[in-house]
Amino acid sequence: MNNPKDWLSPQKAAQLLMISPITLRQWASSGKIKAATTPGGHRRFLKSDVLALAEANVDIFTGQDDALMQDTKKVLIVDDDVDFNAMLHFELSLQYEGWQFETALDGFDAGLKVAEWHPTILLLDLFLPGCHGDKVCHQIRSNPEFRRLRIIGMTGDTGEYAVSRFLDAGADEVLQKPFKMKRLFELLEE
């Protein structure tokens, strides 16, 4: 049996690989990295396996080649309703196992995460503290670096004005809450 110091928690292993624990879990499920399961049902990773993966795929972890994750979409969910945010994250994680997800609770954090994380899809609520979603959308659209980012606005306001605010700011699509998850899935798969 290996020394306990040879094993890493998912958080430590993900940190070494410069990926999220969710991505690490997905890689373990798909066999891209070996994982052991503790009697309590927790995953553990051999430090040597993690380092070997990092060494074998240096280009991936330096951002030069995304070979392991070519088809992976990165979805940023932005909503100040913590429960709604968590529910969306949960539902989307179940539906799209190979995708990566991040969340933000306000417009400022959304802007930072877009700049740092470079999502491929942004689910953006209209009424956010600090900076409304249409302003965030406008700022993102004014930066050519993010012209390919797909922006799906979300609003609890049932009036057409809310929808037009988002579309005028550059959103690709707007969902009015409450919406059916099936409709969101259709939009994400377009």
From TrEMBL:
SUPFAM superfamilies tied to this protein: CheY-like (SSF52172), Putative DNA-binding domain (SSF46955)
Protein name listed in UniProt: Response regulator
One Gene Ontology term of the molecular function aspect: DNA binding
Source species of the chain: Alteromonas sediminis
Gene Ontology biological process: phosphorelay signal transduction system
Superkingdom of origin: Bacteria
PROSITE patterns on file: RESPONSE_REGULATORY
List of residues that carry 4-aspartylphosphate: 125
This protein's UniProt keywords: Phosphoprotein
PANTHER family, sorted: RESPONSE REGULATORY DOMAIN-CONTAINING PROTEIN (PTHR44591:SF3), STRESS RESPONSE REGULATOR PROTEIN 1 (PTHR44591)
Domain Response regulatory: 74-190
SMART domains reported in the protein's UniProt record: REC
Pfam families cross-referenced by the UniProt entry: HTH_17, Response_reg
